[in-house]
Structures are given as structure tokens and as C-alpha cells.
Amino acid sequence: MSVPAATGSSVDAVTTVAVVPRRRRFYTGIALAIAITVFAGFAPTYYLRTYYQSTPLGGLRHLHGVVFTAWVLLFLIQTTLIPAGRVALHRRVGVGGAILAALMVAVGTTTAIVQTSEGRSPLGVPPLSFLAVPFFDMVVFTGLAATGLWHRRRADTHKRLLTLATISLLAAPIARLPFGAPVVGLLGVFAMADLFIVACIAYDLVTLRRVHPATVWGGLAIVISQPLRLAISGTGLWLGFARWLT
Question: Residue 3 domain-assigned?
């Protein structure tokens, strides 16, 4: 009687070992999709700028590009280390990731304020009103990334929140795609970015048979913030705050 039991246990163990890496590949896949989206969106104005434009890029905007690109690449690298069994290296690199996240918030917020003070705004939206979009990008990213780092010892929560934190930044590159903001508007851009959240929900349903709480609350934070920032962007309270910032 003991032989079949042992054999069944071995089969279950082999199956588990085979399934877990496949599940973990989801995060590598979505990180790669994010990297491709960022490159495609910013290719004309940053990555391949010399082919599209002759005007030089300012120092602050170049720093912004370097820092945010570093985050996307680091996120992609981190998603490959866990399936490869490099957990210790993943944790060491994560320390640098925490520092980089703080730098992103500082540079991203500063860049948004400077561009607003220079009168730059897409789609003909008044600069002070549009500032609500990148400003709340930084607010949402900070909340999700900080919470994800706080829960770094809870892998299921940690990986989901940092994935969502990165997704929260995708409106900017998507808006610059040929079918982006000029075609579908800001709400359409947000809807396209939210498809990445839908992918996270689908992954949870397939692997857990439920949606993980981190996906629920993190996804809601992103989705609710999108129309909310547009709703307040023209209010006197926001415009007064934006004038003070700039």
C-alpha cells in the first residue's frame, strides 16, 4: 500500500515544481509587455529621438527618461530572478529598487511641475489642469510601490503591488502611441492602460480561482484615480494648488 502512495506523492511534487515556474512566468511576460509599451510610446520623443527630431532634449527631461527606463528594466530583471531561483540576488537588487522608486517620484513630480510652469500641455488642455494627471500618477505609484516594498516578505502581495505600481505609469507612453490620446482621449488612454490590470485579474482567477486582495485594492486605486483626477483638474481648489506648486 505504501508504494502507490509514495508514487502519487512524487507525481504531485513533480507537477507542483513544473507548474510554479510557469505561473511565475506571467510576471516576466507582463513586465516584457510593459517594456515594449514604454519603448513604443516614447520612441519618437526619447529612445529614437535623433531619427524623429533635431532639437536637443533638456537635462531634466533626459534624467526623467533615464530614471523611468531604469525602473522598467529593473522590474523586468527582477521578474526573471525568482523563476531562476535567484531569490537572494532578487532581494539585494530590491534595495536599489527602493532607492530608485524614491528617485522616480522626486524626478517625475519635478518634471511635471517644470513642464507646467513652461506652459507645456498635450491635447490643448490648460497646463494647470493637466498637471493633475502626472501628479496623481506619482501619488498612486508612491502608494502602491511603498506598500509593495513594505510587504516584501509576503511574495504574493509584494509582486502584485509592484506590478500594479508599474502599470499605473503606463498612461504616458500609451498616450503617445499613434492610436493614443489624440484619437481616444485621456479616458480612452486610461482604459487601454487598465487592460494590464485585467490581465492581472485573469491571472489570479486562473491560478487562485479568486482575485487576490492586492490586485483588488491596487487595481481599484488606479482605476478610481483616473476619472477622479480629471474631475478635480478644473476645480478652483486644484487650480490654486497647481499655481502654488508652479
Answer: no
The region that residue 235 occupies, defined by phi over 0 for left and psi between -120 and 50 for alpha, beta otherwise, is beta
First to last CA, the chain: 77
Cell for 62?
A: 533626459
In a domain, 47, yes or no: yes
pTM of full prediction above 0.90: no
- For every residue of 13-44, DSSP letters joined together read HHHHHHHHHHHHHHHHHHHHHHHHHHHHHHII
Q: Is residue 7 part of a domain?
A: no
Helix axes 155-167, 2-42, angle to 10 degrees: 20
pLDDT, tens digit (0-9, with 9 covering 90-100), for 135-154: 999 999 999 999 999 999 99
Give me the amino acid identity at 49. Answer: R
| Residue 49 neighbours by CB under 8 Å, 6+ apart | 57
**Residue 185 and residue 112: Cα distance in Å, rounded?**
19
